Amino acid sequence: MFERLEALPADSLLGLIALFREDSNPQKVDLGVGVYRDEAGHTAIMSAIQKASREHMETEDSKTYIGPVGVVGFVEGIKKLVLGEQSSAIQQGHLAAIQTPGGCGALRVGSELIRRLGDELTVWVSDPTWANHVPLIQSAGLPIQSYPYFDASTGMVNFEAMDEQLAKLGPNDVVLLHGCCHNPTGADLSFEHWQRIAERANKQGFIPYVDIAYQGLGDGLEEDVKGVRYLSENIQEMVIATSCSKNFGLYRERTGALMIQTKSATEAAAIQTQIQDVARANYSMSPAYGGHLVDKVLHNDELRREWQDELNAMATRVKSLRAGLLEEINKRDIAKDFSFITQQKGMFTYLGITPEQVSELRRDYSIYMADSSRINVAGLNTQCLGYVADALKKVCG
Ligand SMILES: Cc1ncc(COP(=O)(O)O)c(C=O)c1O
């Protein structure tokens, strides 16, 4: 029977990893895969997470199932991390929430919940968006459309075009927004944009669906969620998917959370049973380990401070790599304007070069990036900035 199915084409980013590994050029640079890297190219375990892990190993005395919510302290901590201690939704009990297997798990459960709301709903994603949004949403049975977002000529958000599309949406629409550090472009909404979106959502009746996978890796833990918090305080209903993969470095531990903000505590209680039911039908319950670690880090002053310091250092490193790359580019008087590099946020930047130029960089200079020309800025290091700028000069003229 299995002959009915054919092999699928290889994932292009995973293919890039293999090509990079086989490349013997000592100057090779991997800007493809979207994980944080330090100056040595290593994705280290964060020190606060290491400490929490040791403590957890010593104190955990059972591996029996946890409840359907996941690690309760984790879920409570993440709600406050994203929405703030003073959040009205938290204080009024308007939030349903569960721990999920990573941000992907949150997006999948969130999408299935949205699917349960009716047959007519459409999810709108930014053009472009993170490639995995499409299968995660579509496999929940939801149709996808895209709204204009990125302005390739400026490297920033074309909010006018986006807003024009939002103005046409209504109560059967769900709008997926990147909470901060837009993947793949690095072009983020300004606070004023978030205010306009809240206004639109209230007027048109669509539901915002915020994916926040990089809190703390842009302008800081609080700054990065100003938009999401504004939405939460100013509209009644929304969906939030969060990930601890990047900001706690827990990638393989599959740690995330889904929050649904509803109009009342009664609705939140009903939705709580629905999201638990979706999870139960998919994977029963989330792995607990990552949740225990984040719970410990968030609820221990010393560990929390250590984690925040390390996260700030990571964000600062990415910013200084952006500045360093632009400085090297400017020294070489390259025809293309790359000044957007320092205005964009988070780990990613769209270089805005052609697929042919991307291939040339790979073939002639062993610089690896996605075909779209998205680069992971954290894949750079201070030693290779000049080399990358030289290659860009050769390729772009
Ligand atoms: C935009 C975005 N959303 C969600 C995720 C979820 O990641 P994970 O499932 O690894 O937590 C990622 C990871 O790369 C991402 O870039």
TrEMBL record:
GO terms for cellular component: cytosol. InterPro entries: Aminotransferase_I/II_large (IPR004839), Asp_trans (IPR000796), PyrdxlP-dep_Trfase (IPR015424), PyrdxlP-dep_Trfase_major (IPR015421), PyrdxlP-dep_Trfase_small (IPR015422). One of its GO terms (biological process) is L-phenylalanine biosynthetic process from chorismate via phenylpyruvate. The keyword Endoplasmic reticulum does not apply. One of its GO terms (molecular function) is L-aspartate:2-oxoglutarate aminotransferase activity. Residues 27-392 form the Aminotransferase class I/classII large domain. Its cofactor is pyridoxal 5'-phosphate. The keyword Transferase applies. Keywords: Aminotransferase, Pyridoxal phosphate, Transferase. It holds the Pfam family Aminotran_1_2. PANTHER family: ASPARTATE AMINOTRANSFERASE (PTHR11879), ASPARTATE AMINOTRANSFERASE, MITOCHONDRIAL (PTHR11879:SF22). Homodimer. Belongs to the class-I pyridoxal-phosphate-dependent aminotransferase family. This is Aspartate aminotransferase.
